Amino acid sequence: MADLDIDQALERRLETLDEDVGTCCEDLPRLVEDARSSSSFTEHLERYRAIADEKRLLVLAMLARSKTLCACEVQAALGVTHATVSHHMGTLRAAGLVESEKRGKWVFYRLSDDVNLPLP
Amino acid sequence: MADLDIDQALERRLETLDEDVGTCCEDLPRLVEDARSSSSFTEHLERYRAIADEKRLLVLAMLARSKTLCACEVQAALGVTHATVSHHMGTLRAAGLVESEKRGKWVFYRLSDDVNLPLP
DNA sequence: GGTATATGTAGATTTCCGTCTACATGTTGA
DNA sequence: TCAACATGTAGACGGAAATCTACATATACC
User: Fold this and answer.
1) Which residues of chain B have a CB within 8 Å of the CB of A109?
2) What is the CATH number of domain A53-111?
3) C-alpha dihedral, A118 to B111 to B42 to B90, nearest 10°
4) Which residues partner with A100 through β-bridges?
5) Four-point Cα dihedral B33, B34, B39, B40, nearest 10
6) Which residue is nearest to nucleotide D25 (CA to C1')?
7) What is the pLDDT of residue A40?
8) Do residues B36 and A61 make contact, with C-beta atoms less than 8 angstroms apart?
9) CA–CA separation, B93 vs A45, rounded Å?
């Protein structure tokens, strides 16, 4: 337990659990470390944070149905300012969920190829 | 466009886009409605919101590796108070991502069977 | 029954993040 | 070149959510 920051009360609690139920918590620090140190943990978290907004999930669901959307179409769909659209799409792009392509004045967005998160 | 709340400037913008690039936006309201009215939209959003927290993602990643975790083990792993653990696990349970089982004084959590979201 | 213990709930506080306005940058056409 | 237009960036603001302390409820044991 040296790797986990727990007080004495919690330590006693874990020991009682072990005696009561026979659950061995010696692997707990390793379990935590395995889960958290995975290089994909940060990437998973970033992707989930990006998708966990109603407006952004709506855009992704629409992109799943339509090849591309222009920024102004996204704006019309979401009912927010262009600045907010830009902010949201920047978040999705940074998380690797969408890709953008500029054609003259117009910016088009599409789903990234490697999006493995289920969409409604 | 009658179903979307857009001002005249945005309407002109969409028309210019149509003339410039030949993108037909007549299907946009339907696209929005299809995406948003899906009964799974709300469920997807709730699940993504539940998973998009670092502490909660860590718990799920740990549960993916270990059959069950006791509340006190979760507390030791996260380094927060028991009340915060209870709050977080309540969120995961409400989203259908974990199930809980009480054995005497102890509460054990495990991944729900139908979790289809990739975990690190 | 009373006490100790584990965890759920409520409310206050702190932190995080969506949204806007204003400004900045890039593209187009006269 | 300049003006119009599309969209990216910065900072302020307000609401949502994580976190804590305190209280409440349930279980176990003497």
Assistant:
1) none
2) 1.10.10.10
3) -150
4) A109
5) -120
6) B105
7) 86
8) yes
9) 19
